[in-house]
Amino acid sequence: MTPISASGATESPIVDVLMISHKRADYFRRSLESLLEAAKGDVRVWLWHNGSDPTTQQVFDQYRDDPRVFRSHHSEFNAGLRGPTNWVWAEGEGQYVSKVDDDCVEDQGWLDRLLRAHQAEELGAIAAWRFYPEDFLGARSLARVARYQSGVRIMRSNWVQGSGYLLPRRTIDRFGLLGDHESFPDWCVRSSRGGAQHGWLFPFIHEEHMDDPRSPLTMFTDDATFVENRPLHARLRDVRTLGAWEEEQREAARIVQAAGLAWYGYESPMRRRVQQLRALPSRAKHVLKRSR
User: Fold this and answer.
1) Helices 184-193 and 269-279, axial angle in degrees (round to 10)
2) How far apart, in whole angstroms, are the C-alpha atoms of residue 178 and residue 233?
3) In sequence order, which ranges of 133-177 are alpha helices (DSSP H)?
């Protein structure tokens, strides 16, 4: 990853990429292997393991001393996502930061594509797209695609998911770390009100989300395996069948494409946000908190 500056000098921006593990060792191993394969040049992989699940712990221990891993940390309890994210945001020295969830696999070349877009335009968090072609809403969503002078195109949004994104450190310097009760999408909303431009690079880079039952890499083969291994959001929603969970994913895609870009210009942005979410299907609350 060695882009050329206008002066002809070779530049190698450092990218700090975080992966957090907790359970489901098979997903974690697949996601981490894919990330490490992409970690060429000045890409630094940071690992944080939450809790003491024995099989996941074995995978973490196997890789924590891998020369491709820049730093690692084990928390005996489940510290969630906010603390590990702020760890990298505060202690990393890269010009860009990223995070890949331990149930996601990014398209080949994803970091290079996102980096080129950032070097062409001043953008906030731009990300890979975790849904499928059948989820795209056509002309309605094409109307959200902004074309910049450089030719870069972004499907604009006030937030993106907390995986498969690339964010300039200067944006973190401007808007600060995640707050005490703030998820990554919440942070995106706050920074978008300050002028940061977030969204998904278009044409999309695909993020394979293995918890989507449509994924060829999913562990969910039937309702029984799904109930046994339900993701957090499925448990919160008391979703008990693969069919219902698949519809949750489709609804999530509709919500992010239907959400307006001008929700937050009122005297009480949080109140306005809650009111807007109440007007959308209830899944929206969980979409926004997907990366908490």
Assistant:
1) 120
2) 21
3) 139-142, 169-175
Name residue, tokens 């998820």: 183
Q: What does the alpha-carbon distance between residue 8 and residue 285 come to, in Å, rounded to a whole number?
A: 47
pLDDT tens per residue, range 203-225: 999 999 999 999 999 999 999 99
Per DSSP, the three-state class of 156 is strand
Nearest of 246, 244, 233 to residue 288 by alpha carbon:
233
**H helical segments located in the chain:** 25-38, 54-63, 82-91, 110-120, 139-142, 169-175, 184-193, 223-228, 232-236, 242-258, 269-279, 283-288
Instruction: Give this prediction's pTM.
Output: 0.86
Phi and psi angles of residue 165, each rounded to the nearest 5 degrees, phi first: -105, 165
DSSP for 51-107? S--HHHHHHHHHHTT-TTEEEEEEESS--TTHHHHHHHHHH---SEEEE--TTEEEP
- Tell me the CA distances in angstroms from 291 to 54, 163, 216, one per residue in order: 24, 8, 22
d(C-alpha 65, C-alpha 49), whole Å: 13
The residues pairing with 198 across neighbouring beta strands, listed in sequence order, are 157
State the Cα–Cα distance between residues 253 and 152, nearest whole angstrom. 22
In this predicted structure, the answer to whether residue 270 has a pLDDT above a threshold of 80 is no
Query: Do 198 and 124 meet the contact criterion of CB atoms below 8 Å apart?
Result: yes
